[in-house]
Write the structure tokens for this entry.
Amino acid sequence: MSTRRDPLGLLALPGVAFLGLAFLAPLMLLLWSSIRGPDGFTLNGYWRVLGDEYYRGVILASLQLGLITTFGAFVLGYPAAFALARAKGYWQVVLFALIFLPLTVSIIVKSFGWGIILRRDGILNWLMLNLGLIERPVRMIFTEGALYAGMINVFLPFMVLPIYSVVRMMDARLPDAAATLGASPWYSFTRVTLPLSLPGIIAGSSLVFSLAVAAYVTPSLLMGDRYMTMSMVMAKAFLNLRDWQLGAAMAAVMLAVAAFIVVGASLLQRRVGGR
Amino acid sequence: MMHPPAGGHLAIEGISKRFGAAVVLEALSISVAKGEFVSLLGPSGCGKTTLLRCVAGLLLPDAGTIRVGGAEITRLPAHMRNVGVVFQNYALFPHLTVAANIAFGLRAQGTSKAAAAPRVAEALALVRMSEHANKPVTALSGGQQQRVAVARALVVRPSLLLLDEPFSALDRKLRETMQVELKHLLREVGITAIFVTHDQEEALVVSDRIAVMNAGRIEQLADPATLYQRPATLYALDFVGQSTRLSGRVLGMEDGVVVVQTALGVVRAPGSFAAGSPVVIAARPEAVSLAPADAPGVNRIAARVSEISFLGSRTQLHLALADEGDRGIAELPRLPDGVGPGSSVTLGFAVADTMLYPAA
């Protein structure tokens, strides 16, 4: 043996084996069923998904939902991550709890919660009626606004955590240094703070985007059939229609989207972090 | 009343700052001439870094005024002050190269890339870092990082340079080299510089004047030699250099000198104190000699040697003293034969070299 192999690499073996059994094998089966027709190999499933205006609309709607959720989570989560990283003592505990305790609540419970708040006889309508802000209940649930609010709520922690962990490692005196060199707060933010937090933004955004694109529970509970996402089409295809070819092809498309994001994000990450 | 501009290049008047109940700066005033190097020397928590942050514009004082070149800047935001800072551990921008770090201030102030380039090159040459221009700053050694931090601060031609413990991240050998190098460089540039440090040796090396700080106030502001030879207070005496110090009680005045009874006998010192006052007498180690001639004008104390420290170019004798606050230190070029731990020795120091303070 000429080179000594690092035995630490072997530590990944159990995890890799588990993923291989529990994830890769079923995935292969799924991909297999997406190209299997009654007469052997066929791309009919993909043709049905990509060639049909309705399903193309579903894919676009999922992507749009993912983008809006990611953007909303970023706008709310970026300042929150800074507050969390810079908070001291007791305040940090409180902020941590506020941002991460919701993770311990199931998505189903959270989505139902939004339903209770937003429905016709829900809390928000009751409140606005009694305050005299509106004269009759406003339709909020099953609107896109409600969907976005719910999605951002559910996925916000996944944006905050990666940004927080990057910001926490950032030297808090760098903006001071920029200011003493004559940099305005805006210049300092765009040239120092933002570039240095970019790895966290990329990680958080790709995480939230891939989770949001694949979301099933929140869209179905807050929108129902009105706003079909890829996951909802899959569920319908597998459970209701028993159309394995359609479901598997849709799953493959979603997988491609996710893979594109993960690979793209890590390439971007390398470019940003490699300097 | 109009304030006269004669307050020096940097004029700080009555600066106070408190954090909650803690008073960090208490009506502090100091004036620094153009081109002068002043050290703020004190232990951590004495307010020296707070004062620096107030001058840099990173902290707003509760009261008082700060002027640079006659113009008041007390409430001006940091980025409009043109006061340079070399931060502790340098705070270089880790995502930028050496050259981009140095160009940062120029670019932030609107200098075009083309106009900035020759000035960056000049600054790089000034700190002898030209060959490292395109390296990431994270690849530099501590001494190189310090040079980049200095170049980055100087390239925008600040009216004043503040340096916060600039040598604390360097190891001892490099620190001594960089102290001399930096002093030389800043002198060449002709800038006014304020050093913040807790290291008295560093302050002695780099400063024209040293402000010894204690609990938010300046105990003494003096040139290094005066500060060392004539510390104004016990605090300054203890903070800068070592000393023999004995507590005692004034017996009275005699021929214009104060006569003090200490645990090791009667000691005389120049000054004026009422009989019965509790006092501390002190002498610097190099003013103390072994086995002095029995002559008038020389204080003599006899004690046992507790320890000997060999320092290379000189040797220190430490005396065994009963009182806890008392210390006996003599510094000799070389140790005479037969003197060691346990030896009984007589030490002498001139009355003229003896310092006298009211007991704390």
Remarks:
- The interface with chain A takes residues 56-58, 77-85, 87, 89, 91-95, 104-105, 108-109, 136, 152-153, 156 of chain B (CB under 8 Å).
- DSSP finds eight helices and 20 strands in chain B.
